[in-house]
Amino acid sequence: MVLHYWQRDVWHSPRGIAKRRLAMGKLRDSTIEALQTILGEALLLDPAECLAYSYDNSRHQAQPDAVVLIESIEQLQSVVRICYEHRIPITARGRGTNTTGAALPINGGIVISFERMNQILAIRPGDRVAIVQPGVLNGDLQLALKPFGLFWPPDPTSAAYSSIGGNLACNAGGPRAVKYGATRDNVLAIKAINGRGELLSFGAAVTKSSTGFDLSRLLIGSEGTLALIVEATLKLTPKAHSSRALRALYQDTQSAADAVARLMAQPITPSMLEFMDGQCVQLARDAGVSIPDAGALLMIEIDGDDTFLDKAAFDIEKFAMGNGCISVDIANDVQAREQLWSARKALSPSLRSLASGKINEDVVVPVSNIPALVSGVQVIAQQQALKIVCFGHAGNGNLHINILYEKENSDQALRAKNAMHAVFELTLALGGTLSGEHGIGIAKRDFMHKALDADTLKAMQDIKQVFDPANILNPGKVLP
Ligand SMILES: Cc1cc2nc3c(=O)[nH]c(=O)nc-3n(C[C@H](O)[C@H](O)[C@H](O)COP(=O)(O)OP(=O)(O)OC[C@H]3O[C@@H](n4cnc5c(N)ncnc54)[C@H](O)[C@@H]3O)c2cc1C
Fold first, then answer.
1. 432 near 364, Cβ under 8 Å?
2. What pTM was computed for the model?
3. Pocket of ligand 1, candidates 114, 116, 158: which has the most ligand atoms within 8 Å of its Cβ, to mutate?
4. Shortest-distance Cα residue to atom 53 of ligand 1
5. Virtual torsion, Cα 49, 16, 434, 136, nearest 10 deg
6. pLDDT per position as a tens digit, 38-80
7. Longest dimension (CA), the chain
8. Is 474 in the pocket of ligand 1 (CB under 6 A)?
């Protein structure tokens, strides 16, 4: 049985949800007629059709009253003006792959799906920019850039099926972020429509700018709560000719984390620096990956010119070695490299086979605090009598903490929730923050007051008010 979002206990009481739904405007017949005039068949009202837009990867559900398959900026401005006038909530949707409930229409209203605004408007290799509509898939853009020897650095594992609009709204990242940055570092300009239906343009297709406030960066990571992104000018990077991958095994997490700190302190920035704890190593072994037993593992990649790489790999190997290091292997060809990465790739399927429930949090701490995070997480695992495994982007201090439990067991589900709270407390105590790439949505919204002080949250609320005075853009997300 699918539980509706408001039937779940986790974030809101049913009374709270009902109150908010009443407070927001409803879709009256006259509003529907006005929308139909603008949109025609691009307005979906049939609940069965709308159902497909009631989920995201948080696996919760909230049914929208209508879905708009938006096709142009002008159309969208008209829709937002109507929603502003009638106080109809709007939830932007790329491809619904976010994990935090950010794309769920928890107050009903309209889902704006950007799947039809999926054109690459320009690729200008000389300026190193691509101009895209928000519905373009990250993977499709990367394919289009290949012939130019360029790429757009943000590389979420979901690249093949997540949209650039969603990537921007969540400030998505991936393994390459350690060298090339996450989404926020790779966008030059944005066009977006605010909660009054006004079209705003921030930034330009230039790599230097000192012209006023940098509001593009503000919109990136705002999860559709400030404005609807309708066009983005992306900063492109030349693709490196070649790469080398290394696998380093350690006796324990502390030795691996010390190596991460050594690697980040030397001059060659790895293009990936991924961490797996001992349990992950065992899972990979169980899945048939041929690696020796170890307390922790680092996957390191460097990229650049072939002439530079051999010497660089030697240097990296030197820094990866040290107290507690068991071995460092360099993969010299593609096949050997694939074998190294197979350990990392085998993880997600293996986790799914271990337990029916998984809470995957993507907390971040300063790199030097990775050992304290991982050992603290193991204490929490013991306290709650649950299995918790850690892996992720060590070079950014961004670890995926996977709390495993049996969904059908209510006691385990409660302990998993307690463990999640404890992980957030620990992360904040270590000088870290709640999310490195997945965002806040509704999943972490009620922890924001722990991560940010009251004055800072108030400043964020004030900014929200400026962009969205009627609070119609993704209401109830991000800010408590
Ligand atoms: C298997 C898998 C692996 C993943 N791996 C990673 C990873 O490695 N790194 C990572 O960062 N994330 C990862 N994710 C999470 C997710 O893919 C990203 O957050 C992605 O950026 C979401 O894109 P989307 O198109 O699906 O957006 P959606 O999920 O549809 O929306 C996400 C948010 O963006 C808003 N939004 C969408 N479009 C717009 C727009 N045009 N204007 C304003 N707001 C908008 C929505 O309202 C919502 O708040 C993964 C997800 C899955 C399922």
1. yes
2. 0.93
3. 158
4. 97
5. 20
6. 999 999 999 999 999 999 999 899 999 999 999 999 999 999 9
7. 72
8. yes
